[in-house]
Give the backbone structure.
Amino acid sequence: MTGVGDTHHEGVVGDGYPAGAGWVVAAHGELDQDTLAPLEEALRSAADEHRVVVLDAGSVTFGDSSFLNLLLTLNQLTTFRIAAPREQLRRLFALTGTDTVLSLYPSVEEAVAGS
């Protein structure tokens, strides 16, 4: 990998922060098998420590099947909510039927509140 690629990998996860009874993890950019590891680490760590984990997906521009698999796995480990998914992710969830399994919310605030 080049230094540029390494920066891209590190850039997929923003700062996590406490919110209500849970923890919010912000993700950015394209999430696929080559870039997913930092996000997986952040989400699994949050699931180990917090009752509710919210993925702020508002800045995610692409997600592949490995990303989808991670979301489904997290959904089984904790109370997991996805906030502000863009059109590409909403299409992915609808096409795969996972929009009926995953908890999707229009904003981080609504995801934290569970409403």
Q: What stands out?
A: Confidence is low (pLDDT under 50) at residues 1-9. Helices lie at 3-10, 37-49, 65-77, 87-96, 108-113. Residues 37-49 form the longest helix (13 residues). DSSP finds five helices and five strands in the chain.
